[in-house]
Amino acid sequence: xxxxxxxxxxxxxxxxxxxxxxxxxxxxxxxxxxxxxxxxxxxxxxxxxxxxxxxxxxxxxxxxxxxxxxxxxxxxxxxxxxxxxxxxxxxxxxxxxxxxxxxxxxxxxxxxxxxxxxxxxxxxxxxxxxxxxxxxxxxxxxxxxxxxxxxxxxxxxxxxxxxxxxxxxxxxxxxxxxxxxxxxxxxxxxxxxxxxxxxxxxxxxxxxxxxxxxxxxxxxxxxxxxxxxxx
Length: 231
What we know:
Layout: E1 5-7, H1 15-21, H2 36-51, H3 75-117, E2 122-125, E3 133-137, H4 138-149, H5 163-179, H6 185-191, E4 200-205, E5 216-221
Parallel strand pairs: 1-3
Antiparallel strand pairs: 2-3, 4-5
C-alpha cells in the first residue's frame, strides 16, 4: 500500500507531521472522556431488552417525570443485574483511564495539525480520486485555480452578487405556493431560505496526471446557496 500523504510542495514535512496526516482529513478521534450518562442508559436499555421488559409507553410517548417505573424482577434477574452492574463499572473505570491516555497523545497530534493549518505557504487538501492527503504550495494552487476561473466558456464574470435577490425571489415563490395551498405552513417554514451565500469553488489535484503537473479538478460547494432551487 502506498503512502497516503503526497507532498507536492516545497515544504519539508517532519516525521511527526507526516504521521499525523496519515489518518486523513476525515479521521474522527475518540473523546477524552467517557459519556457516563449515555453509557448508563445504554446498559439499562441492554438489560431491559435482554429480559424483554417493556413499559406501557410507546417510543414517541413521553413518560411524566414524576412517575416511577418499577419492574417485578425475580431473584435470578436481580442477581444478573448486580453482576452486569459490576462488569459495567469495571469497564467504565478502564475506559476512563484509557481515554485519558489516548487524549494526551491526541493533544500532541492536534497541536501539530493546527500548526500545519496556520502555515499560509501551503494548502492541505485531498486527491481527486481515492483517499489520502495532498499538500500543495499555495501559490501553485492559486495559479491553477485562477486558470480554471479564467475559462470564459465555463465561467462568466459578473459585477454584483445576486445571492440576496435570488433568495428573495425564492421566498416570494414559496409564499405563493403556500397561499394557493400547494404547501403547508410547516413545509413553507422548512423550505424558506435564510442566510444564503454564494457557492464556493475549490480544486482537488489529479495525482494520476503527473505529466500534466497535477492539474486541479474544480468542485463547486453549493451549501446554503439558494440559486440551486430557482434553476
